[in-house]
Amino acid sequence: MLFWMVMMILVLVYDEMLSPGDGVLGIDFSGVLNQQMKGLYRCTYVDGGVKKNMAVTQFQAVDARRCFPYWDEPALKALPIHSLQATFKITIDMPSELTALSNMPITDEKLNENIKTVYFEESPIMSTYLVAVVVGVFDHIEETTAYGTKVRVYCPVGKCDKGKFALDVAVKALDIFTR
Q: Is there a contact between 94 and 138 (Cβ–Cβ < 8 Å)?
């Protein structure tokens, strides 16, 4: 196996010819929590004079590759090959006092001492740059639309009054577009 860091290209070389057909490629990987506002990065803010951190994603347009491996060559996405279309099933391990958010609802949470593992529902097929993850300390406010959809706005602790307008607009917009 060869990897050219500058070009971010991975070439797989096998000792023998692979048989035609479907297969599974498993990749172990690790990413870095950076401070460049690209990929998965650390965001710092001050709350009551105390410096706090949260982890946030910014994957547009090709910065998801800073967090995990995937096929992002535009020519590949144009092919009618289902296996190159991606769904995402996010699992996050984090300190138990934190909240994890992603594109999909939480399906399960498990606590092991002071580490919480949060499992999210598998996403529909979507572009990699749309994957979102946020981990931090949050409060939230919520309302339900006329059609029964729960809408939440997450805010820094003690700042939910700042999210009320966004919540009101989101609920009204969903009601209008659901009709």
A: no
